[in-house]
Records
---
Amino acid sequence: MPFFVYTTVFLVIPTIVVVVAAFVSEGRPTLGNVRALGNANFLTAMRQSIILSAATALIGAVVGAILAYAVSTARPDGILKRFVTSLCGVLAQFGGVALAFAFIASFGAQGMISAWLKKAGMAPSSTLWLYEWNKGVLLVYLYFQIPLMLIVFLPAVEGLRPQWREATETLGGTTWTYWRRVAMPILFPSFVGATLLLFTNAFSAYATAAALVSQAQPLVPLQIAGTFTSETVLGQANIGKAMALAMVVVVAIVMAIYTWLDKRSSKWLVR
Amino acid sequence: MTVASPNAARGVAVELIGLRRTYGTVNALDSFDLHLAPGEFVALLGPSGCGKTTALRCLAGLEDPDAGRITIGGRDVTALPTNKRDLGMVFQAYSLFPHMTARQNVEFGLEMRRQDKATRAKRAGDMLDLVGLSTQADRYAHQMSGGQQQRVALARALAISPQVLLLDEPLSALDAKVRTQLRDEIRRIQLEVGTTTLFVTHDQEEALAVADRVGVMRAGKLEQLAAPLELYARPASAFVADFIGLTNRLRGRATGDRAEILGGSVPLLPGSGSGDVEVLIRPEHIDVTPDADGNASVLSASFLGAHGRVTATTDAGEQVLVQVPSASLPDFSPGQRVRLTPRGDAALAVAL
Ligand SMILES: Nc1ncnc2c1ncn2[C@@H]1O[C@H](COP(=O)(O)OP(=O)(O)OP(=O)(O)O)[C@@H](O)[C@H]1O
Ligand SMILES: [Mg+2]
């Protein structure tokens, strides 16, 4: 029941607001907002948002999963493990923005490291890469994607029982057999779930991108924000809601894929 | 040596020789020796932390001994990795692969041995039959009870026709009724397949009920290895006498091969001390009769089902447990004077 209330307040109502607003302009129903999504600018932003989210989700998932495994082999009550998990908790929440500023402070045109490099006569021709969505932004996104993966995937890795490895060995299997036939299939549903979570996490991230990118609006969340702050054209806010609807649709598709994969890959799970 | 299995010829001998394993300052195994005859079912028994699991895991190759040798069927396997040792192992719990059905679990080891599909299916079917689970073949672990899961684990371990079967407290996560049922079944199956078996448990009843011989361990060493009856009737040390069954410790005097206790005389087992001793005597090796001029008074009398137990205090102030037939329980009430006399069964005496 509390869960039901929670989802209603925080999920269902906002979604309804977005959906309704997407089809309303100046109090009247219209398809204009949605039609406005057809412009090249938005389509480019959508494509780039999806590519950025998918890329950082995949890289983050693989690297994060490997780190999660490394952490899981550390002593369970050891200081290293507690340190890493709490650090990751912070990074996953705030890593992006903090890092964006750290990056600008180091590699930006006036940045410290840039200044040293300049003194050493090795100044890069441009520091603009830092602000590009598929370079600097992508790199900075990984700084919260990898920790997030570590946190959400660690419980799954720790759920692997030592008996499974030992049973594999007594039955004649090798370490490789264990990973291929036992550990990976068992982890697969969690891995996919976590990867899709990372995708939506990156897809909806705004603060980090906003901190790095000031002029252009290469990503959908930036464009949406732009429509709300735009002073030039009235009624832009409703187009923003149409864009939000487009985002909801993408996330819904991702969830559908997840549900389908989950059903196929984990009929053995306890429910 | 008693070898009960008619199929023992199929089994191989196993030897653990002078095994030592230390964890930091703890000697989990300390010059530990254990020999299993072909086809024999040996249970390792002992208090928690005495090294039972460590011994079994060393034999499995899951733990490396610091010193000592292990042979299976005469072959030295000390340096061989687990997956080359040809063992079947049943763990305490939760060892089934959760993403595979019972059948797939049982087939796993056969797949590792590159057997073709038809052979695998046939063998898995036979094994599930053997443990009485052919109707559950397509279930996942979480769809089965703890007892059923352990049956599947047993079928999986035996499917590969291992040279040695290892069981580490396979029944301890089950409730009492399933436990006795499954333990008898494990024994039945072991006799049927004739595999040399090492069974670790801390439940003495379990060990005594199923094993050809029981090894009692203490602090990393094998204290005594003997058939259940022998272990009970002729314990080699006070530790074994105390650990197996109930024992009274009564002060007495030993001369030659007899000792005086409770105004009577009992023959002593080999290895007994002399002079002032404590005699370790079983509750069923003492007689109790109502007697106003007796040597003890009843503290309590309790009904335990098949038999009863009288607790009495001797005039010397020692507390004694005596087993009596349930029918004679009404003869005893607290405060009543009784006479306790040893029946004359051999007992162990330890010097004070
Ligand atoms: N991996 C380990 N690290 C440190 N100490 C260990 C380890 N494994 C076992 N020990 C120690 O070695 C001793 C023997 O342990 P073992 O598990 O063999 O006992 P056990 O007889 O099986 O006990 P139980 O009946 O509780 O299962 C214990 O004192 C235990 O604390
Ligand atoms: Mg143990």
---
Amino acid sequence: MNEAVEAAPSADSGGKTKKLTEAVIRIAGNSQDGIQAIGGFLARLAGRSEQEVMTFMTIPSTISGGPSIFQVRIGTGEVLSAGDEADVLLAFYQHSYENHIASLKPGGIVLFDSDHVEPKPEFEKNYRHVGVPISSLTVEAIGGTARDKGKNIFTLGLVAKTFHLDVPKLTKLIGERFAGKQESILNNALTAFHAGYGYSLGDLLETFAFAESQKRDGTQVVMNGNEALAFGLITAGVRFGAGYPITPWSDVMEILRRELPKYGGMFIQCEDEIASVSMALGASYAGRVAVTGSSGPGISLKTEAIGWAVMGEIPLIICDIQRGGPSTGLPTNVEQSDLNIAVGGGHGDSPRVVVAASDVEDCFYTAIEAVNIARKYSVPVFILSDQAIATRIEAFAEPKLETLFQDISPDLSPVPTHKPYDLTVADGVTRHVAPGTRIESGKYPIVTGLEHDEMGHPTGSPKLHVQMVAKRRRKLQTLASTIEIPKVYGGDEGKVLLVGWGSTKGPIREAVDRARAAGDSVSSLHIRHINPLPNGLETIFKKFTHVLVVEMNDEGLYGSGQFATILRARYCDPKIRSITKTDGLTFKIREILERAAPYVQGEAANV
Amino acid sequence: MSATSMETPRQTTVAGAAPAAPFDRKPLTKKDLAADQPTWCPGCGDFSVLALYFKLIEKRKLWHERITTVAGIGCSSRFPYFVQGHGVHFIHGRALPFASGVSLARPDLHVFAFGGDGDAFSIGGNHFNHTARKNIKMTYVVMDNWVYGLTKKQTSPTSPIGFKSKTDQWGALDRPINPMKQAISAGATFVARTTHTNPSHVLQMMEAAMDHDGFSFIECLSECVEFYEGAFDASNPRKGGAFNLVPEDHDVTNEMAAYKLADVGFPGHFGVFYKSSQPTKNANEAKVSAKLREKVAGLKDWQILQKNFDLLK
Ligand SMILES: Cc1ncc(C[n+]2csc(CCOP(=O)(O)OP(=O)(O)O)c2C)c(N)n1
Ligand code: SF4
Ligand SMILES: [Mg+2]
């Protein structure tokens, strides 16, 4: 906990109240305890209080439950990651207590359910222990067995008291959450909440209060990355999607299935991922960019059809919510190991666009950007997200929907002539004309996966293949020339430049902040456009002694992660090196700093 | 799409509205419709399917902007190149999901999909089942030649046991798929069988299929003169075979009767085996949408999402 203000007396608790700028709370229990709900309430409350918030959770990959955690970091300043260490651990069971106590900062507080947890002396030395009979008090408050239901809300009350959270806002959130359910359910929830809130911790614990937020004004919305992605696609004008369920992509398709019909659209659950990508391509061909997506093995299945989209020059959005691989891999863990398949997956030379979202808010805007690139360049576009962004909750400035909403209905008015693959266009960018369009010349286009002439008719001509391959490549080169170079975070020059892509943005920036606070010359560069890359990165790299690419994948046979390999190939610069990891967890700030240390300290050889 | 609905003003949902087309035009003729000279071997059965597709378009006044021709990969699947009209040559086995995307997004278009037996029942077998059961509105003509033509004589899923191919030099071992049974059991709502040697029957089946509101499937025997010459002689009266129509007393709405009909050994029967009226996927989805849209009536699109956002604050 970062304490901003000296301890101040507080009337209602009898104890002291400390002002905080931020806190990390880890809730550990079993997945059926509804701990995600506590985390969700806290995150939402933070959003409504104009605080920054970031969450992190693990869920067991088995359905029947099992150990699960939810970590929420709330701050009045900028919150960049879910936090390496927790200030408060809420432990429901002995296993939650024993497995997660090490995640606490030294001197941190463990608030445990004394009905289930037997504190251990070796831990009591290092951490402050506060036992509350959460289970029995919940039963006392609302009856029943409290095995599964209610104690999460009781605990929320307890947390609300400890952190001086805004009770009217919280009870309103509870009301919204249970809206439409039986009244008794809402009443039970509120009773449990007040029982938790009213429980007297006595002198066991001082209480805390968050300092006034210095955040930007304006309202915030609170959601996870999958929600942001789905809503971004809707905002961009996408009205058709097709997919097959797989974790962690399924949420996106579930949201679109539920929402798209409201806009006159639809999302179809197909028999497999091949059908999904094919159906989405059919809808895109029919005139309006459609979406498909998957995770892990489902992406592999789509590659043949994506190659067709490149060849046929049909726009398409492919969401890849990365998880650990290969094969079924680590279904509920994070990895950034699909960069290669996104950039180059498939046979033949098949240039496509890859954009990586770097946080929850960015999922929303990346979706819009991806749709517009796909339309403009008639090309498939991958949106790379990952399990970490997909499931974590963040608060961000509410997008101005009225101005952002796009109408991308196709123009089906007759055209005099049309060449789908016109070679006379210098930048290679040609437009797809949807079926239903009358072409007055009477010459209609064929959209095809065979190498073709300008009208789409098959050809074996070596010359045409050379020209068409170049056309498809040139489109992406044209796009590259329009991409802005990202800004360096930290100083514009120095010893170490940490390069990241995707969900590592937050931890990398926090690592930069910490390193610079300690006087070290560390900066970072976050790249959203993976393929094509923006032009001119070399001017940035030139100003640093070391360029370290931080990514969650393997260092490969030759010592570089997937993105590092691409950067090394493009810039032929041996000072580009890798910081990779494959434990299925997001980067901790400490991990990044430790791995960068030899370069920062100058022990690593300069090249 | 029924004959009458072809005349109604066009409307699209997912993809946006199309401008109304003039209706006083002359029907398209073969001259307007022929594109590339077909690359099929002289005598290939696929020629007659193409010729009858042109006839259908002419007879039923299907304008260029009302139809889309989709195919997978195979000799037969080269079909769209030979048709002057919006067309798609997709990937092997996946014509149906692609065609489904077009059909669902664009109710103003009638989608015709063409393909071979390998495309339909081997690599695309599962898509066939699911497109049929979902009853996605389109017409699918499988040009069944009992062999892989394009890749030059390998065993196909409809090759009869004993057929000597390059991949079964001693004769095919696996029991063939019966396309009629496959379609009926998958839940196809229109199932018909015809043969390229009887043009007027092909046209008749195509018309009936087009008029069916749902997934309409035609198996059209189409001889591969190059790799399976004479395969269908027993169904061709000119070759001493028998062309037997579906018996007049056959009840096309009776699934079991249709299945029995499909069980009759070669040359079997020709005509509509099965036809039932079920809601299409297209209609079902439109219904879901209409119902949900009642709740957001009067709202602009952005305001619909704003309601979600207001709950996420
Ligand atoms: C994924 C994939 N696998 C294999 C092929 C090669 N291939 C092309 S067509 C074909 C079989 C065609 O047989 P059929 O569908 O019966 O069509 P026909 O040529 O007989 O009309 C095969 C195996 C391919 N194009 N794509
Ligand atoms: S190989 Fe057979 S199917 Fe292919 S074009 Fe020749 S005759 Fe027709
Ligand atoms: Mg065949």
---
Amino acid sequence: MALLELTGLSKSFGGVRALREVSFSVDEGEIVGLIGPNGSGKTTLVNTVTGMERPDAGRVRLGGRDVTGLPAPSAARAGLARTFQSPRPFLHMTALENVAVGALLHAPRVADALRAAEEVLALVGLAGSSGLPASALPSERRKRLDLARALALRPRVLFLDEVMAGLNPSEQADGVALVRRLNALGIAIVYIEHVMKTVVTLCPRVVVLDHGERVAEGPPAEVLADPRVVEAYLGTAGA
Amino acid sequence: MTPGESPPLAHPAEGLAPAGPRASRMARRRGLWAAAALAALLLVPFWLSDRYVMHLWVTFYLFAALALAWDLIGGYAGQLSLGHAAFFALGAYTPVLLLQRWGLSPIAGGVLGAALAAAVAVGIGSIVFRLRGVFFAMATIAFAEIVRALLLHFRSLTQGDNGLAIPFTGERPLDLMFRSEAPFYVIALGLVVVTLAVTARMRRSRIGYYLRAIRDDQDAAESLGVVSRDVKLAALVASAALTALGGTVYAFDIGFINPDSTASLGLSIEIAIMAIIGGVGTLAGPIVGAGMIVALTQITNAALGSRGGASTALYGLLLMVTVLLRPAGLAALWSRPTGRRGERRGAA
Ligand SMILES: Nc1ncnc2c1ncn2[C@@H]1O[C@H](COP(=O)(O)OP(=O)(O)O)[C@@H](O)[C@H]1O
Ligand SMILES: [Mg+2]
């Protein structure tokens, strides 16, 4: 049985149909790529699954449990975590405190949460920044901080929304290694990315969205050769 | 990350996470200082013979406690409440009525008033927390105006705008009636200490972390499992209960309450302004703000008389200057070292 199962997920904003009956699933321990041109509905999918938006129609099941339309805090509790396309750190808190907010989900005592946060910061390579206010971190480290916060929730499925954008090749290589390490910890990952090289490296299987519709699914090499996918990307002159 | 770097945008609530034995040693030293300061303040009534000056101290403490309590929701939760006078009024009227009708000691009455304010906070919070920003502020104003209107309306209970007087019937400590002002000095100081303790504890607790996260980015906080409505509600309940206790102290210190002195928009604004001018989200800020405003009101009233609204105009001016020049509040002028400590930890 799939760990995460989306069926017929739809979401509109006024006249814009951001998601049109999207279905796909993610298995335990899997990394699934989610690609598509800008505005194709990737972020909306994350928002709808993790509770920031409510779907208009469709079902989301996690480990067999119906989690459709759960509010964000409940989704987090159920095991769904996400990063934000542009990082949204708590600017007036230190890096450690940022992560502790996530860790408090499982560690009701602050001291325990801080200890757990320390470990997560080390995992993402931010140990040296733990006492700095998030506002002092450059954008690459803010991305890691976003990730660390999500990890502190000990999620079952983690949505990474364009974490590689704006990183230089060596930072991207570090990023790929980090995503692998997280996956090795048993976290299933939905990997949203425009940097195709990293998608091909990380994802045995990708799902392609175009205008809110799932237009292809399969191994990256096959999918990227699919005429509909080529058209989607060329049609919007994107990526 | 090096110790020499200048601190990034100092924010008062930064770096609360304790760090190792050095921090606990520092905390102990700070505790000793606080105890010494408290002892010194407790000695003040012994050499202060002027009742009026003593009353000024009581006023200062009272407003310091109110501003600290307001900061729980206004500062830590970032929800601009302009209706706190309503909780103050509940805390003032409840024990006075209970004393007059049933002879209940205002010590118990004050606790009941605080409980009532807390209960009302739960009800009102679940309505107003659906709103954000200016709509939230407007809803809190409306709420307080409703309380004021009710106090004016139910004359048989509250005497309307004539207010309620608490006749002095001799030295009766259990009824909070004292010949001297000194006991109120101690009570008001005690209220500051209690409010400080609640605030300090909350800052370091789970709720404190959640509140700061919500203030910075509510959606991001919710994505991390924070049920923002419940967290804000908890802050509002604590804030309302403490504010009500302030109302009780006020009522029995002054010996007279009416809707205008306890439930007015002016009072709500005054409390908020003190915390904002001093600096929200800090322990020192609301106290500093209260001290400044109380002192300022004295000076302007002495110079211009209390009627011309001169002090109100001056608050407005002071508020504008603070917000423009020092958004972190005036207390931040000398709380810089806190930011540095956080930084050293980062480098370690
Ligand atoms: N909150 C919103 N309100 C209105 N329109 C939105 C909102 N979020 C997304 N959209 C629209 O939905 C479509 C999909 O956007 P998005 O999910 O951000 O795409 P992607 O992440 O693939 O770039 C776009 O047309 C976008 O303008
Ligand atoms: Mg996007």
---
Amino acid sequence: MTQHSVSIRDLSLNFGNVKVLEHLDLDIAQGEFIVLLGPSGCGKSTLLNCIAGLLDVSDGQIFIGGKNVTWEEPKDRGIGMVFQSYALYPQMTVERNLSFGLRVAGMKKDEIERRVSRAAEILQIQPLLQRKPVELSGGQRQRVAIGRALVRDVDVFLFDEPLSNLDAKLRSDLRVEIKRLHQRLKNTMIYVTHDQIEALTLADRIAVMKNGVIQQLSDPHTIYNKPVNLYVAGFIGSPQMNMLHGTLNGDTFTAEDGTVIPVGTYEFTTPAAAGTKAVLGVRPEHIVLGDDVKRMPFTQEIEIEIVEPMGSDTLAWTKIAGKAVTFRVDSDVHLAVGQKLVVGFDPARGSIFNSETTNRL
Amino acid sequence: MMTTETLASSAVTGSRIEAGPRGAKPKTLTIARVGVYVFLILAALFFLMPLWVMVVTSLKAMPEIQLRNIFQWPQQITFEPWLKAWDTACTGRDCNGLKPGFLNSVKITVVGTAISIVIAALNGYALSFWKYKGANVLFGLLVFGAFVPYQVVIYPLIIGMREIGLFGTFPGIIIIHTIFGMPILTLLFRNFFAALPPELFKAARVDGAGFWQIFFQIMVPMAVPITIVAVILQVTGIWNDFLFGTVFAGRENMPMTVQLNNIVNTTTGVREYNVHMAATILTAAVPLAVYFISGKWFVRGIAAGAVKG
Ligand SMILES: Nc1ncnc2c1ncn2[C@@H]1O[C@H](COP(=O)(O)OP(=O)(O)OP(=O)(O)O)[C@@H](O)[C@H]1O
Ligand SMILES: [Mg+2]
């Protein structure tokens, strides 16, 4: 068995009789960047706090670096943590914020100095070392918070929505910096967010969570293109995946309004009996128009209802098989409301789910 | 360069300004406003009247007081009553004035305030961050304690103090003040700490700090505003205390308030109103000074409970 950096085995956690996490298993490889993604209240922070040792688990085990740390104190687990609200010590300068953990551990002065200046150099906060947290901007505060985890020289970094208090521009800047940091340090990172862009851009693997259960654990490409169930399909992607409800009969999918869509090109993971109620999901960017339509197994003439120019591309609303559908085109393509044109898609790039079990077929 | 720009832009906008309201709205004195001011001034005069009577009486000699013009400024100012109140006024057999009482009060107030605040801060910190078993029960008891009338517990406390041999001693009165200050002070600190972001505490734990390190290095520096509020509450509360001082302090530790009462109620001879007034003002001076000096801090401290960082 290969050794995992972090291994969570059969973890359960209840607050009183509220079950937040149930029988959760997760193995994270050395140096992997794992993103826990899910809606508010699904237990992401709770899981992170369990890994950090800030919450006592109700059942199960946690291994970090091959050692069972289930009963260890946070400081003995070899982790560093970065919080959404920064949680900098307000009365200490940046330098003392960074060195607090090292001073508490009784480390030698010159070693502390060496580590603080290294962290400050990596995060480019040297000019801020003598300031108090109130004198910093949000982005600078978050950098210091990351630095506080950095100086501890730990194997595992835990991030709890570190960017969600920042504005859009700073968020994308720091996102790149975190990615750069990971490439440089190569430690294991567990990153909680409810922002799917962050998840897709940063992660080696994404764990999509719902009600304390991991729905799918895969690399971003698989999560986006081959979601295992309707929940993951709907949660990832903006605008949402288009969902057509209907019945599956061998190589044809009959939508509710009677439109027949040939799905012979689709690779089924599990064979479906004839007459199975199913949902066909198609991403907005997989609906094409113009010359490409000829190569598509399914085509239909539609009328444009709403046009939303997004800058880099344009979003159009229409109806396919009687359902409201969005599709994405290049921003140079001119679309007008009321315009009629032919569009098409290949079900091979879509996803088909069983309506009852909501699982991928 | 800046000036030319401003000039240019103001010249442009200047031509666009029309007649009518412009800039800040002028303040007008309405009848309602005049009414409010008149009421406030009258109220202030009403509450200042007793103080005025006390001050002028304390500056008069006895014969002038017997003329009974209690509001009148003294024809001949004398500081004799003040000296007497401080130095030689008689309380029962001793004739040392308020001096010893003042010193006792200072000792009791300083030690009592310090000890009760240290314990309350620790209590509040432990209650809000270290969710130990029974914390909620303890907190409930403390809140309940804030509503128990003193009279109910005084007698059991007297017996308890006598049993442990501290009745009528300095440690005894300190313990009493600590006990009675505890509910409100703990509430104050608990609410302050509970309003801090819990991540701060989590971050410190990940950094490896323990109970005392988090308390002294992170919580105490942040709790300065609320500590000022607590100090003001305790200083004025303990200084003004009469009941506990009479019952628990013992003769050697009589606080100033008890001595003041003894001076004023000494029934031998003429009633020296001027000395009584001077003694009263002297006794009230400390809490008054605390209010004047700390009013600003007090408001800031109360407000600090609502804001973070
Ligand atoms: N101390 C607590 N006592 C009881 N229930 C709690 C406690 N902390 C969290 N919960 C519950 O546990 C669930 C998971 O909370 P958690 O904070 O892990 O959510 P989250 O996924 O991090 O959400 P968000 O994205 O909003 O941060 C929520 O339903 C919450 O109400
Ligand atoms: Mg959370």
